[in-house]
Write a structure and sequence with these properties.
The structure is a single chain. This protein is of the alpha/beta class. The chain is built from four helices and eleven strands. The protein has helices spanning 13-26, 88-91, 95-112, 185-204, and strands at residues 4-10, 34-39, 43-46, 63-65, 72-75, 79-87, 118-120, 123-128, 131-141, 144-152, 172-173. The strands form two sheets. Strands 1, 2, 6, 7, 8, 9, 10 and 11 form an eight-stranded mixed beta sheet that branches. Strand 9 and strand 10 (144-152) form a beta hairpin. Helix 3 (95-112) packs across helix 4 (185-204). The chain is globular, with a radius of gyration of 16 Å.
Length: 205
């Protein structure tokens, strides 16, 4: 069963987080999987084990504590976020396999534009050289996933300088615009959702 793609546009973070939790809490074995494509106004999200000291400066951007894995990251306009609301048990997918599928979808998208990207052991996400272009965080509840992946497309990267991205001091961040990939956040979201579907079909198949 291919996930339904929902394009939610520009939406505030907190109600979207609540909607993911509600969707996951009320879904049944018959509920179709969904992928939500969104952009958020500026917000820092701090994962379950997130250490406040990774937020280096108060630059006036709200901080939301959430229940995904990982440390602190930044979401803002010009970054596309895909939330994966999947029944892993039904897909017969292990969490590790889902993480690999998400990373591979980003790698395939960038590869289409001649950009070589890679994953790193023990540091989920996708990197171009020594700079991070996509961040990943998931929560699994009752065998179902929520949260997902953010891809930096055409945004103001300066808020990343006020944090240790994903808990790594001095971690460089990059975006597709810097790599001469001519995509808007909307277009990147559309393409990434298709690569994700392919990866999920492959894993499931």
């Amino acid at each position: 069963m291919t996930p339904i793609i929902k394009r939610l546009g520009h939406v505030d973070y907190a109600p979207t987080f609540q909607a993911m939790q509600d969707f996951t809490a009320t879904r049944t074995s018959a509920t179709p999987d969904e992928i939500w494509i969104v952009e958020h106004p500026p917000v820092y999200t701090l994962g379950q084990a997130g250490k406040p000291e990774h937020i280096l400066h108060d630059v006036g951007i709200p901080i939301v504590k959430i229940d995904r894995g990982g440390q602190v990251t930044y979401h803002g306009p010009g970054q596309v976020v895909l939330y994966l609301l999947l029944d892993l048990a039904r897909l017969k997918l292990k969490v590790r396999e889902l993480v690999t599928a998400i990373e591979q979808a980003v790698i395939d998208l960038l590869g289409q534009y001649g950009v070589t990207a890679e994953r790193r052991d023990g540091a989920p996400g996708v990197y171009v050289g020594d700079a991070k272009i996509a961040a990943l965080g998931l929560r699994i509840r009752n065998g179902c996933s929520y949260h997902g992946v953010s891809l930096n497309v055409d945004m103001d990267l300066s808020p990343f300088a006020a944090i240790n991205p994903c808990g790594y001091a001095g971690l460089k961040v990059i975006q597709t615009k810097d790599l001469n990939i001519p995509l808007t956040a909307h277009e990147a979201g559309e393409q990434l959702s298709q690569y994700l579907r392919q990866q999920l079909d492959k894993q499931h198949g």
